[in-house]
Amino acid sequence: MTALNRTTVSSPTPPVRLVHLGLGAFHRAHQVWYTQQAEADPEHPEWGYASFAGRSAGISLELAAQDGLYTLVTRSGDGDSPELMTSLVESHPAENTARFIELLADANVAVVTLTVTEAGYHLTEDLELNTQAPDIVADLATLRVGSSDGPLLSAAGRLVAGLRARRAADAGGLAVMSCDNLSDNGTTTRASVLGFARALDPELAEWITAHVTFPSTSIDRITPATTEEFVAEVARATGREDAVPVVTEPFASWVIEGSFPAGRPAWERAGAQFVADIAPFERRKLWLLNGAHSLMAYLGQLRGHTTVAEAIADREIRHHVELLWDDAAEHLTAPGLDITAYRRALLDRFANPRIRHNLAQIGIDGGTKQRMRAVPILKTQRANNLLGHGAAYSIAAWIAFLLRGEDIADTRAAELLAARRADDPVRALLAALDHDLAADPHVLSLIRTFVTELTR
Q1: Which of 229, 247, 274 corresponds to the end of one domain?
Q2: Cα–Cα distance, 61 to 41 (Å, whole number)
Q3: Can you give the residue ranges of the Mannitol dehydrogenase N-terminal domain (predicted)?
Q4: What DSSP string runs through 370-393?
Q5: Which of 90, 157, 175, 255 is 20 to 30 A (C-alpha) from 77?
Q6: Where are the alpha helices (DSSP H) in 247-373?
């Protein structure tokens, strides 16, 4: 068995021109893959990633021991296709603030990408920085005394510290691009970064406004969690010791709106789309793909399933997925979306027998995810004097799942636990998603009916 490093595989090392925050499997199956596929000359690559864990060491140490190399396995019904990924050059734990800041101050670094989840932006519902959040309070205190030697806890704190160093180095602008599953994620990122910068140094905020762009993206590629069994399979198939391989599906999508003042890889070579208006594509993905995932995560587990493939094979669950999609499709009418083909492709992807996409993993942070998935569909329906049973059923499945009384795997766990203990837990949990829906008697009555059915 061969050790995996750049010496044993004679891998070319591209210069670091990209930085990522939120190192995980999806980043390695998506942004790193697109970057490697976009190289005009693979023997002389021009774009390398330095990627940082979000809040801890994570897998960064294992990747560092492999010089950033890992195996990406594309898994379909026809078999596995392993590919050695070489565009990740550096991997660092979250606490390596010094290296993060050093890289952002480097004029050769052109783009920062993020996968930190919605909670990682520390914004209120009005897209204002939550300056009372403990991580924000701590980072502002650290940076106000001029220190950046110790760990910074928030994405905004780290980015602003890096951008402050970039301004001091006169390194010019760059793009900061979210790859999280959020509508208008560029606006979200901009609000978080500028909110932190204004609280720290208004002149720095002005510099960021003038020199930094925040492109919006819609991203898509199912990436199940890596298991010990999969690690062993990769070793047998490749003859290499890879501690952190990644498995993914054949399908990949990346839609981008925005500008890149310091340049970017030619991601379009790998199939990325650059569009003038990303909003319709975002809604299509969030409402259809991600919306179906959330519905299956809770309804599937309630019905005893563990994976997406098992859930979509259940006729009852597929029926409710189709109803959810019917609700959403009424409001996805922009040219170029081709909803019928998109739905058909999703069913094929969900049914892929060789992608083990665990429902429990998908169901984490439902208190945040459902706000972006089922809630907008249902609110759009109500704004048009309709009552979407599909979206309401998805919310009811989430509530019924929480009412089972198990530990809540959610960054909002304390708030949701209090709601579950309320005198009227259905109303309280619905209000935790959206106060307007909880105040709508028709919506509340329908969701009560569904929750009763699901908890019998």
Answers
A1: 274
A2: 29
A3: 17-268
A4: HHHTHHHHHHHHHHTT---HHHHH
A5: 255
A6: 279-284, 291-302, 308-313, 315-329, 339-350, 359-363, 366-372
Query: 288 and 253, same structural domain?
Result: no
Structure tokens at 327: 């609700």
Is the separation of the CB atoms in 244 and 217 below 8 Å? Answer: no
Is residue 266 located within the same domain as residue 357? no
With beta carbons less than 8 A apart as the criterion, state whether 275 and 255 touch: yes
Give the model confidence (pLDDT) of 14-39 as tens digits. 999 999 999 999 999 999 999 999 99
Query: What digits encode the pLDDT tens for the residues 117-162?
Result: 988 999 998 999 999 999 999 999 999 987 656 789 999 999 999 9
The DSSP bridge partners found for residue 418 are none
Q: In what order do the strands lie in the sheet with 48-52?
A: 88-92, 48-52, 16-21, 111-114, 174-178, 212-213
Is residue 391 within 8 A of residue 327, CB to CB? The reply is yes
- Buried (b) or exposed (e) across 293-322, using 16+ Cβ within 10 A? bbbbbbbbbbeebebbbbbbebeebbebbe
- By residue range, what is the domain housing residue 234? 2-274
Q: Distance between alpha carbon 354 and the CA centroid of its chain, in Å? A: 22
Residue located via tokens 């990747």 = 63
Cα gap 84→238, rounded to integer Å: 10
Locus of tokens 């050790």: 3
In angstroms, what CA-CA distances link 131 with 187, 242, 372?
A: 18, 41, 23
Domain count, the chain: 2
Q: Are residues 295 and 355 in the same domain?
A: yes
Q: Which of 344, 252, 319, 327 is nearest to 283 (CA)?
A: 327
CB 18 within 8 A of CB 48: yes
Strand (E) or helix (H) holding 19: strand 16-21
265 & 396 share domain: no
Sign of CA dihedral 111, 116, 119, 125: positive
How many whole angstroms separate alpha carbon 292 and alpha carbon 287? 7
Please provide the DSSP assignment of 146-170 as one string. Answer: T--SS---SHHHHHHHHHHHHHHHT
Question: Quick check: pTM over 0.85?
Answer: no
How far is CA 299 from each of CA 24, 262, 292, 308, 414, rounded to the nearest angstrom? 27, 46, 10, 11, 23
